[in-house]
Amino acid sequence: MSDEPQRWSQATVYPDMWVNPDEDPRDNTGVSPEGELATLQDYLTHYRLTLLMKCEGLNAEQLARRSVPPSTMSLLGLLRHLAEVERDWRGWILPGGPPPKLYGEGDADFDGAVAEQAVVDAAYADLAREQATTDAVLAEYPDLSARPGKDAIAVREVLVHRIEEYARHCGHADLLRECIDGRVGQ
């Protein structure tokens, strides 16, 4: 017997999809966004939803499971890490120094991702809060070439880096989820 989970997908229409197209909250069957800002925001929203989809339906132990030793990466750690990333990138465009870390220095976002429901609940709340706060700050700069903050980083660069970070970690989330319960899909 193997400890490896059997691969499976919830989708019935296309077996390589996470969910059936008519159930996908990232539905993008309509007209594509108009303009660069709307396009970047659409991609960011898509990846944020993808990460949450990869975590849904799992309990605290499963979310905290480190699936590829010796890595400390887990789905719960990714939620915490991306809250930290939102906070960090926001610090690049605000005046003054960077905001304090949420979880501590080093790999505290991953190391502290333990199988406790309170930690899970806090991670989801932290991520939602940090996303909303960063979104609100960036909304003050509709010109993507604006360079606020002490290092004069373009708003466009902040948006692209956020997309890149979520996209990269959604790939990790795919593998982590498959190791946990075998679920695969787009």
From TrEMBL:
<dbReference type="InterPro" id="IPR034660">
    <property type="entry name" value="DinB/YfiT-like"/>
</dbReference>
<protein>
    <submittedName>
        <fullName>DinB family protein</fullName>
    </submittedName>
</protein>
<dbReference type="InterPro" id="IPR007061">
    <property type="entry name" value="MST-like"/>
</dbReference>
<feature type="region of interest" description="Disordered">
    <location>
        <begin position="1"/>
        <end position="34"/>
    </location>
</feature>
<dbReference type="Pfam" id="PF04978">
    <property type="entry name" value="MST"/>
</dbReference>
